[in-house]
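Reading a protein record of the kind used here takes only a little practice. These numbers are not coordinates but entries in a learned vocabulary of local backbone shapes. Here is one such record, which you should read through line by line.
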Amino acid sequence: MNIAVAQSGGPTCAINASLVGVFKQAVKTPQIDAVFGSLNGIEGIINDQLIDLKLVIKTNEDMELLRQTPSTVLGSCRYKLPDVEEGGETYERILNCLEKHRIEAFFYIGGNDSMDTVAKLSDYLAARNSKIRVIGIPKTIDNDLPVTDHTPGFGSAAKYVAATVQEIIRDSSVYSIESVTIVEIMGRHAGWLTASTCVLRANDEIAPHLIYLPENNFTAEKFLEDVRNQMAKHKAVIIAVSEGVKLKGEENKPRVVDNFGHEYLSGIGKTLEQLVKENIGCKVRSIELNVMQRCSSHICSKTDIDEAEEIGSAGVRAALAGKTGKMMIFKRISDVPYVVTVDSVDAHDAANKEKFFPARWISEDGNDVNPEAVRYFLPLIQGEVKIAMKNGMPVHFKL
């Protein structure tokens, strides 16, 4: 049998590690022959743009370099499959491509929207009495996929964000004047990544002094009150805020959205900076971490990379066992010692759904998170990967 694998959605530090997991499991499985990579996600299947991965990943050294390379080496897309009733031609092209290359299992590495593709495609193939299996391999730095305890890519992003905020703390503490620094962190509707800055408290940091998530109501008046309270205690106030936080009254402003209806966001940091400048008048700056938090592999979490590879391998084993229309998931057994197992669920359970940061982990005032969150996050950022370097810079695998 031949298999194919594709990557979709936003890049992460760990998505190529999942690709390595699929590839490594495939090459040591006697019944699997060719391993095709689909360029630019499902678009590569639709347009019959496949490459033979055995021709580009030739050695163990290639696999290790790819494993630690950030982003999606096969390219990505944000292509939304139409409903079967409306897009019959698209599905026919997909089936023709899979059958042409004798592909009997397709693995899609991605997030909420990618699981929509897994669910729709597996339903279509089942209706056509096709034996081709479709398996979803999760990834997203947002950590907002339902059912799974966490997602590959999140731990590395959380580690980068925490380290960066810690460096901002050191930078802001050198002057005698009062200051406020606002750090805008990714998170459209779910505040997992912003909340993860609380791990700094495990190393005796007090900051960030305020943490704001999209799961909570947010008003300018309460924000300014919170800032003034913290300024009475600390010379340099550090604030972590999710990009998806909206000021009360701005919920119905015009939106620019992608193919899946997701809003393009940025700017809350600048908005809050202006609020502080106008109402408090101290030194204030906002910092938008932007895309850096997705692909900062130089400080990736070894736990994250190892788990990403393992869940990719588990996906191949699930397909060989006859499963289809499934998304692989992590089940956490314990925090200390940290133990997880890999399982699978119906892809419909995750497609187009979001997992929000638990209300029980948000402080009563809505401006911080509770210690229970630290226990959840800490295991996910553990360990360091020995990064390949050349001329003082990280080396990346490229097609």
